[in-house]
């Protein structure tokens, strides 16, 4: 009677710890995809406004080795400069723990007969201000990563670009706070004037000593 329960519990724990899902190591993946993107090295782009076009294709060297690729998932990834002292962006070899690439740009089906694609993305407003590169993963039918490609070198030092989030969100916040301050000054003056009028009308003359 207890045995099935124990087996079930063990399975559940195994699934929760992701053993159920492939525990893929980044270091085990081959770099078979060629990934390029429009930002020039060092370019500063505006969140909520500027666009990035990403293209991906199978590197001809690996022709015929892509039979299990089902999907290409393109992601925006923090460069080492923007990960420093930030545990929540840390790179881990175990991909289910990895925090390098937190933003999905697009997912597209992969076709071995036309092993390439492109996508133009408007940088979303909520992308944090940081320095990035772009990585594409090839996923198999189980949605496990089986290969990758990226716009930077292995050391993640070349071809990085910056997203500047200051425009848009922060400007509108600034405008909102200026409006609020102006409103509070005006309303303060208004109530002050009313109080003064009331005081003039209703208060008895100051006592004469
Ligand atoms: C294709 O792969 C080969 C072998 O890994 C590599 O030397 C070459 O630079 C790659 N080509 C591109 C365009 O990335
Ligand atoms: C992007 O993909 C479309 C087909 O989806 C193709 O017609 C176009 O030439 C591609 N552009 C680039 C820059 O690769």
Automatic annotation (TrEMBL):
Residue ranges of the TM segments: 175-194
GO molecular function term, any single one: nitrate transmembrane transporter activity
Keywords: Cell membrane, Membrane, Nitrate assimilation, Signal, Transmembrane, Transmembrane helix
A single BP term in Gene Ontology: response to nitrate
Signal sequence region: 1-22
Record keyword Transmembrane present: yes
Family, as annotated: Belongs to the NAR2 family.
Identification of the protein by name: High-affinity nitrate transporter
Organism: Punica granatum (Pomegranate)
């Amino acid at each position: 009677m207890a045995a099935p329960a124990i087996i079930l519990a063990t399975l559940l724990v195994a699934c929760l710890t992701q053993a159920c899902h492939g525990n893929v190591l980044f270091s085990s993946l081959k770099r078979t995809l060629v990934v390029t993107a429009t930002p020039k090295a060092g370019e500063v782009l505006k969140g909520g406004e500027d666009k990035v076009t990403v293209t991906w294709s199978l590197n001809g060297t690996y022709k015929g080795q892509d039979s299990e690729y089902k999907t290409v998932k393109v992601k925006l990834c923090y460069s080492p400069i923007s990960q420093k002292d930030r545990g929540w962006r840390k790179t881990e070899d175990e991909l289910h723990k990895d925090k390098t690439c937190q933003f999905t740009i697009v997912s597209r089906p992969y076709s071995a007969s036309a092993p390439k694609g492109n996508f133009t993305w408007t940088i979303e407003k909520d992308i944090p201000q940081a320095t990035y590169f772009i990585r594409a993963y090839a996923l198999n039918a189980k949605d496990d990563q089986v290969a990758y490609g990226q716009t930077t070198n292995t050391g993640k030092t070349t071809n990085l670009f910056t997203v500047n989030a200051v425009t848009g969100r922060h400007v509108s916040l600034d405008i909102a706070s200026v409006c609020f301050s102006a409103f509070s000054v005006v309303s303060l003056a208004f109530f002050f004037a009313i109080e003064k009028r009331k005081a003039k009308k209703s208060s008895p003359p100051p006592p004469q000593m």
